[in-house]
Amino acid sequence: MSHPMSHPMPPAHPFDDDKLKEECGVFGVVGVTDAANFVALGLHALQHRGQEAGGIVSYDPEQGFNSARRFGYVRDNFTKQSLMETLPGPLSIGHVRYSTAGSKGQTQIRDVQPFFGEFSMGGAAIAHNGNITNAESLRRELIERGSIFQSSSDSECIIHLMARSLQRDIPSRMEDALRRVEGAFSVVAMTRTKLIGVRDPLGVRPLVLGRVGDGWCLSSETCALDIIGAEFVREIEPGEMVVITAAGGVESLRPFRPQKSRFCIFEHVYFSRPDSILGGRSVYETRRQIGVELAREAPVEADLVCPVPDSGTPAAIGYAHESGIPYGMGIIRNQYMGRTFIEPTEQIRNMGVRLKLNVNRALIEGKRVILVDDSVVRGTTSRKIKEMILDAGAAEVHFRIASPPTAWPCFYGVDTPQREKLLAATMSEDEMRDHLAVDSLRFISLDGLYRAVGEAKGRDKACPQYCDACFSGDYPVAPSDMIERGFEVKAAE
Ligand code: SF4
């Protein structure tokens, strides 16, 4: 049996180092019996947003606050009756995380959220999705003033800022704290009686409100409402704070100076689950539409449109439909990878992507193949997939990418390599094509992507409708900690 203080498993896809990774999912429920069971199911549906660790806090009037934090998948931990019985009560929140292990070292169990703080007016727990871009300077200031940090997580700053606030109730202390924080945050928090949800003024990361029976829930995505049979009510708006009690309903507050929203456009491309609804649009349908735009912008004569599974699938369907070229599953994913070889040997590791993906040779042989993928980050996986397709006898390989070139790191809650490691930061599209040694390589344009998400006129250059910084270098919030460390933000055009 794994000990909760140890770190028993590597990331879910040990061979998949070539995707951007969402760092967190949050979920909370109030007003149902054994709320933690609902939270566990919600987190299970949000597991794609973070596979390294998860935590749940619950409150019961008789037993007070209880918490459990574990490394590994939700289904391997928070399904055990013996554990769930320790999390009673009608109010609960939870968090799944993917760590930024490359930059901060291995996660300790104390870094796993929700974080808990005991204040004079009672306890509070918070779970945070996003990234605080001034966390280093806040942490320095807080430590100088006597705060004692328990974790290496930026999110713990919020608890310490709340502790220093002079406000008389916890929601007001949270408002105070979050006004000092820069960057992206979707926060789900709880007191003894209230479930609280907050989105940063730009609304970079998602957060939705749902109704479950007589209770309420908050979730990073709508797919987690579906799993518990909750009804989707609405999105929490950028800059909105909701304070929810089981009996009193939802109170909506506006603690921040209003700003034009800049939701993460990459949620549409890759992070969110295709069965979620974002901004009133089906993520699946948006991705299919990206494929349609891509086919219009970057046509090529070929015999087969083939997705790189699983995330390239809706865009490949859209590309095939628009181009009239047949769609086929030329690459098959081994669904059970990542669980089979928990600690791969060097020899197995060298097999790399072949362990996860296999080519459907009978379909590929002799064909001119269009491969549709969601993104190119380092390009290592794209190269290997191209080799597999050619080994299987493809006549030509054309890559079509459902996002613009990823040339800038994200500082808002997504793990990206340093700029130098991003293929598109150092190479032009033609150079990338030669580097990958494919017959052609085309990315959807930024305007094409905006059209696919419903902006008929494309990107408004003066005032972009989304955050697209990883493509454009146009950061909606200056990443002040990174600038202090020497990161050079692109000059305004
Ligand atoms: S930089 Fe990219 S991944 Fe990060 S929030 Fe903006 S669009 Fe999303």
Q: Mean pLDDT, rounded to whole units?
A: 90
Distance between the termini: 56 Å
CATH H-level name of the largest domain... which superfamily?
Aminohydrolase, N-terminal nucleophile (Ntn) domain
| Radius of gyration using CA atoms only | 23 Å
How many strand elements? 25
Inertia-based shape: globular
CATH class of the largest domain: Alpha Beta
Quote the CATH topology of the largest domain. Answer: Glutamine Phosphoribosylpyrophosphate, subunit 1, domain 1
Strand order of the largest sheet: 4-3-5-2-11-10-12
Outline the secondary-structure elements.
Blueprint: E1 21-22, E2 24-30, H1 35-45, E3 53-60, E4 64-71, H2 74-77, H3 81-84, E5 91-97, H4 101-104, E6 115-119, E7 122-132, H5 135-144, H6 156-164, H7 170-180, E8 183-190, E9 195-199, E10 208-212, E11 215-219, H8 223-227, E12 231-235, E13 241-245, E14 249-253, E15 263-264, H9 265-271, E16 277-278, E17 281-282, H10 283-297, E18 304-307, H11 313-323, E19 331-333, H12 346-351, E20 357-359, H13 361-364, E21 368-373, H14 380-391, E22 396-401, E23 414-415, H15 423-426, H16 429-436, E24 440-443, H17 446-452, E25 466-467, H18 469-472, H19 480-484
Parallel strand pairs: 15-25, 18-21, 21-22, 22-24
Antiparallel strand pairs: 1-23, 2-5, 2-11, 3-4, 3-5, 6-7, 7-8, 8-9, 9-13, 10-11, 10-12, 13-14, 16-17, 19-20
The chain binds iron/sulfur cluster.
